[in-house]
Design a protein that fits this description.
204 residues, alpha/beta, Helicase, Ruva Protein, domain 3, Dna Topoisomerase Vi A Subunit, Chain: A, domain 2, 4-stranded parallel sheet, two-stranded antiparallel ribbon, 9 helices, globular
């Protein structure tokens, strides 16, 4: 059977299909859109992708994503941010969600994932030792464990709590409140969410 599409287009479809959440049909639509776009637009996209690794780096203190020209994250170096309060998140993009609330004025620490033996991710692959050093160096008073409400997130939170306690660090530890999102019916809520909703119930 003859090849139905040119090899160059098939190559783009194949590469786009490797992106998370992009299926075969979506990859085909994206590739066809790029084919129809003008050359200048495609060059601009290609340049942006090429410069991604040279223009972005990880903050050596918080492990948040920062511009390559910066030494540390502005959310850490800003004197108006409270260094004694640290929110621990799994991934750099989790910071954006917390910042959008406008309710948090502390700093962040990105673990770089969550403990997941199935995926081959163990505690040694996360930025936990660096967090323990930060607690001492910045005299941190409270750690907010803001890992995801998943089995992996819960395991990571428990491991962090034990590590902090085992190292004899005197710091208050808290966890983001869990519960039912507004507009979600009980029948559609997962077991972890329902369990936290019961634990965090309040009097009326």
């Amino acid at each position: 059977m003859p090849q139905l599409l040119p090899q160059a287009l098939l190559t783009v479809i194949d590469e786009l299909g490797k992106l998370p959440g992009v299926g075969a049909r979506t990859a085909e639509r994206y590739a066809y859109h790029l084919l129809r776009a003008n050359d200048a637009s495609n060059r601009k996209l290609a340049q942006a992708v090429t410069q991604l690794h040279t223009g972005v780096k990880s903050c050596p203190k918080t492990f948040a994503l920062i511009d390559a020209s910066e030494s540390v994250s502005p959310l850490y170096s800003n004197p108006s941010r409270e260094r004694k309060l640290v929110a621990v998140v799994e991934e750099p993009l989790d910071i954006i969600a917390l910042e959008r609330t406008g309710q948090f004025n502390g700093t962040y620490h990105v673990l770089g994932g969550a403990i997941s033996p199935i995926d081959g991710v163990g505690p040694e692959q996360l930025h936990i030792p660096e967090l323990l050093h930060r607690i001492k160096d910045d005299e941190v008073e409270e750690i907010i464990i803001a890992t995801n409400a998943s089995v992996e997130g819960e395991s990571t939170a428990l491991f962090l709590q034990r590590q902090i306690e085992q190292h004899g660090l005197s710091v208050k530890m808290s966890r983001l409140a869990r519960g039912l999102p507004v507009g979600v019916d009980l029948e559609y809520a997962d077991q972890i969410t329902l369990s936290h909703a019961l634990e965090g119930r309040r009097l009326l």
